[in-house]
Amino acid sequence: MKERNRDEKPAMGILMVNVKDVAAACSIGVSTVWRLVKSDPNFPQPIYFGPKVARFKVEDVRRWVKQLEAGKTDDQPLAA
Fold this sequence. Notes:
- This protein is of the alpha+beta class and 80 residues long.
- The protein has helices at residues 19-26, 30-39, 58-69, and strands spanning 16-17, 47-50, 53-57.
């Protein structure tokens, strides 16, 4: 069996991240991420793989950050 190099990045790149990574990328706290999930319809919604396993799509997080940088208002939906 071929030994896998653990330093290699997957060819597809990182597609999903956990809540701690989202918080770090957005410079906010983990509790703020969960508050935004509940209160902001434009904030990326997590995908649950189990009762305590939630991941966010990296592309959704990037799109939300770009929306903030562009100065869009909360009443404008994210582009699909």
